[in-house]
Amino acid sequence: MSRELFGKKMRSYMPEQAIDLVYSWLEPHNIRLKITKPRRSKLGDFRVKGKKEPAIISVNGNLNPYSFLVTLTHEVAHLKDYDERKTLREAHGNSWKRIYSKLLVEVIETGAFPADLYPALQRHINNPKAASCSDATLLDALRQYDDEPKVRLKEIADGAQFLLTNGMRFQRGDLRRTRYKCQELDSKKWYLVHGEAEVIIVEMD
What we know:
Blueprint: H1 3-10, H2 19-26, E1 31-36, E2 44-47, E3 55-60, H3 65-85, H4 94-109, H5 118-126, H6 136-143, E4 151-152, E5 161-163, E6 169-176, E7 179-184, E8 190-194, E9 198-201
Parallel strand pairs: 1-3
Antiparallel strand pairs: 2-3, 4-9, 5-6, 5-9, 6-7, 7-8
């Protein structure tokens, strides 16, 4: 894909200041970039199908521009890590962390992020997480740019009933580190749900 076509496609998803940089990351590689519908379990991913087939990076298309850019940078780091090590083992190990931190610094230098995100981004660079939802400080900072504010599980009361985006109805229980023990009300089974999960509060019967 040419730089012009890439820029035209990506302008509606990410800050324009970072487009040339991201294109320079991807251009040397045999890679497909897919913009997907929202997924409950992940914001993006990186997959390798075979030696002759292009690798695939996918990013959820409903993210705000700054969340999209952070997620895409995360996945490009997997691409570059795989290109160096030729393996997906220890996918979030020291090699990936080194590359990811370097790429984030490059993005920040383009001026693509507003200044109020810098403290959370710098903290994230110093200690990259396997998933952005594991870094509550960065997630909180990025979410202020969402078009519509979301309610997270950690923000509701113990005993409150809620729906996940898949329609399952739960009641919140005790906190277990970063996840809550929640009972699914139809089956009465117990699940551990991440505190950062987006929920819809429902009235109790």
